[in-house]
Amino acid sequence: MNQKGRLPVAVLGAGLIGVDLAAKILRSESLDCGLVVARDGNAPGLRQAAALGLPTSAYGIRSILDAPEPFGVIFDATNASAHAEHAAQLRLLGAKLVDLTPSKVGRMVVPSVNGADALTCDNISMISCGGQASIPIVHAITREHAVDYVEVVTTAASPSVGRSTRLNLDEYVETTQEAVRDFTGVKNVKAILNVSPARPPATFRVAMSLRGEGLAAGSVEAAVKAAVEQVRTFVDGFRVAATSVHDNTAFVAVEVTSSGDRIPWYAGNLDIINSAAVHVAERYAAAGLASIGTETP
Q1: Which residue among 129, 135, 252, 267 is the active-site one?
Q2: Is the pTM of this model over 0.85?
């Protein structure tokens, strides 16, 4: 912890995700954003971060490696292909890495499902925006019902999908599918991503279809309601748009609207993954404070 009693953190990447992430960290009572990093000094996101009063650097990962004071958490908001290299370089710093790319390098964490894993793993994967929106729901349903097929269809507005995400569309789908399999135990999983050019922009939406025996409206709705309440403790704009059960098939659609930091209301895809990332970092910071409080002189 620094002199402010907060955990110093850095954000690697100043795209759509990185800037909104930095803005959310500014609101945190337990995190202190000590640096926002890009590789291009003319990056609009870097200028936005500077306008928020945050320290910035255009020297990429080198600026984190050479920082005079260590960071407790480093958020990687670059791209999947870069994260493996970043993880190898940053490992020696002893910081916890929170990966917002679909690289599959770290331990996959969904705060409301296995958030405690964030305390013990050095590299945490936030999976994808679709994973963060769908896994709490499908995990809750599959805990109570025998399910043999899960389909997750994510729709995000084109203006909310940045360059790094567009470079990682295949990785996005593969990582989301793998995460759904891991968290539900269902082998037959399909993930689809739609980048919508509609005007006005479409609200971020994730539609889930589950097929299995014994699916009943009452039990499915109860599982969904409980899962949504947990997610809403750190993502205010998370809500159920539709739920139905018919002929052993359950359909659930959720929508996420942004809290409006540095992103428009429809960019719930950015809001949910950033909110989840900040939440696990705050949980880690709280655990650190608790351990300090129990140390003997």
Answers
A1: 129
A2: yes
